[in-house]
Each structure stands twice: as C-alpha cells, then as structure tokens.
C-alpha cells in the first residue's frame, strides 16, 4: 500500500512491528478502517483482496531467524491481516485471531495460576459458564465468583487479594444486562486486576462512543478495559459460516504472554477462516445499522403485543440501563429477549411456527435466528442459576438479521397467533 509497508515486508520483522504501522489509520472512520486496514493490495500483483496464505511453514534465510513467520500455528500472513484489521476496529495496539470465541477465553485463562480467582458477571454465554465452572474451577484449581455487576460496591467488594481477572459480557447473554465499562475499569485499575470485556453482542462498531465536541473514540480499551474479546462467529463474521474469536489489547507485555499461550495451546485461527472474517468485517457497520433498525421495531412491536409478558431490549425505555446504553454505546444492538405469556408448550408452539426466523443457536448473522436459551444455549447453566437470572422456559432470545422488516414482523405476528 505505501512504501513504509513495502520496506517492512522486505526485512525480517516481529509480527507486532506490523501493528505499529497502523496508527496511520487511526483518524479514519470505522468503515474505512474496516475495509482498508489489513486489506492493502498485495505487494506482488496488487490483488485488492488479501490472499489466503496456506503455507504451514516459512523458509528462513538464516537458522532461527525467520523473515516474519516461522510456523503457521504461531502466525501467518492472512491471520496477521485480520489481526491488524481487528486491532484497528477496537482502537487497540494488538489483536489475536483465534479459532473460536471459547478459544479466546481459554487463551486468556492460561495466564492464571492455581489458587487465583476470577470474578465474572453472573450472566454469560452458557459455553463460557461451562468452561469456567466445569474445567477452570473443578479441574484446574481456579476460584470463581459470579455476581451481578449492576451495583459497583458489590463489584469492588467481590475483588479479593487473589483476584486476577474480572470478566464481563455487555450486553450479557441472554438477559441483556449492561455493564458500566468505565466504572468497572476504574475499580479494576484501583485494585490492580485485569478487566476483560466480551463485546460480542455489541460488536466493535456499536461498543464505542464519541466524546462530545472532541471526536475522540471511546472503545472499551479507551475506557480502561485491559482486554476486549469477541466471538467473531457472530457479528464480525456476520454470515454464519465461520467459527472464530479474537482478543484485542494495548499492553505489549500482556501481548507477549498471550502470544506464548496462543502458540503453546494452538488456539490461533486458520487462514481460510481469517479470510472469511476479513470479508465479513468490511460490511460490519452497515449490517449492524440495518439489524439494529429491525431490532428496535421488532422490540417495540413485541412490547405492544398482548401475548408477550415482557421484552428486554436496551433500546427500549423500559430497559433498566437504557440511559447507560445511550451513554456508552453507539446503539442498543440487535439482540432481543422476551417472555411469551404461557409455559414451555406455548414457547415451543411459537418457535415451531416461525418461518423466516430460523430456530437455531448462535447470533449475529445476516439471517434472523431465534432460540430458547433454557433448552439450548444455556442448558448447561445450573437450573437454580437459570432461575435466579430469569432464564425461564418461556424466555426466548432473538438475533435480528437484516431481512426486510415487514417480513420479520409478519412472521412474528403469525407465530404468536399460533402460539
Ligand atoms: O461459539 P464461539 O465462537 O466459541 O463463541 C463463544 C461465545 C463467547 N462469547 C459470547 C458472548 C457468545 O455469545 C459466545 C457464543 N454464543 C453462542 C453460540 C450463542 O448462541 O449464544
């Protein structure tokens, strides 16, 4: 793309040197960065779409002195292209592209030593809970507490001398609680612990706001988070065809530790997957805007419907953190949860009646998905915990896609009639 980059390509380099070049993108808008950072025309033929580099190993000019990559588990050009792209979108210095969202979580947890403590928000994806409860705690001797982060004094009080990581999803999956990122980050800083934000539901496009009159981006890392995590499988990938995750951060020392963990456990992403994710991220902003417009309308429609008991959507004034969402994000996202009036049978009839929404786990794709967390994504959460959180049998989660709004609304209408 520019001579600076070409020069670097000709020299032996550490991977993170490439990230340092990307400050030139920092003043550009979100979509410009999404489309260009990491996607520069290739140096040989000028291809405008990055090549999928399938090499598993790389020739070394001198023993032990690779040009940049030595072995593809540790890094490869297509993965680096995506990592630069992700870092730019999260206003981060560095990023790792990993082979699933769970892999991102596990790679981070490798930083822990037996006896240390993780404080996690009480409502997180069922798979994350399964890993935290059944592997990290039961098999690896890490202590775990899960609490609501709504009361900041509770968060402060729950951080113990052996706490190493505070982990939040925002909005949480599936009850859509919002965490005050800046406030929790301040507590973590004061206590000297890492703060990890799983931003999957918002995506890098929405979890940002601009300081009034300053045009200064405030991504979670700017608000004080240590690490941002995404399941790329969702909005960044956007087409329900790739399972991936990522970690974004600013701290070089932590980057080195995570690099060691990634290469040791083999959690890095494959070149094919990175290519798909790079393709997805280019359209993230327009997909999010459209999905969010649909979500707002559908949430309002559900809220007015007599067969619906309650709707949870951060873009509704009825959401307890409506103001916080407005303050900290560009928009309320495209995930909606609601309680249908009735029992498990009513929920089942409704879920079987939808025609355009697909009854399936996952979220964030162009197609609208719908599911019952109690029986599907959060089945592994202990029933008593599901009860506390309100993940009841009649609780339904929607991932709004980008189809035509009228078709989506008509589908919900006819399915509610059949329920
Ligand atoms: O599926 P994977 O790419 O490994 O990502 C795990 C993950 C991490 N964080 C959040 C907030 C998630 O929602 C997920 C995956 N969630 C689903 C599959 C789901 O249907 O909720």
From TrEMBL:
Pathway: Amino-acid biosynthesis; L-cysteine biosynthesis; L-cysteine from L-homocysteine and L-serine: step 2/2. One of its GO terms (cellular component) is cytoplasm. One of its GO terms (biological process) is transsulfuration. Its cofactor is pyridoxal 5'-phosphate. It is an enzyme of class 4 (lyase). It comes from the Eukaryota. Keywords: Amino-acid biosynthesis, Cysteine biosynthesis, Lyase, Pyridoxal phosphate. The modification N6-(pyridoxal phosphate)lysine is found at residue 234. Gene3D superfamilies: Aspartate Aminotransferase, domain 1, Type I PLP-dependent aspartate aminotransferase-like (Major domain). Its EC number is 4.4.1.1. One of its GO terms (molecular function) is cystathionine gamma-lyase activity. Belongs to the trans-sulfuration enzymes family. This is cystathionine gamma-lyase. It comes from Stylonychia lemnae (Ciliate). The gene is Contig5488.g5868.
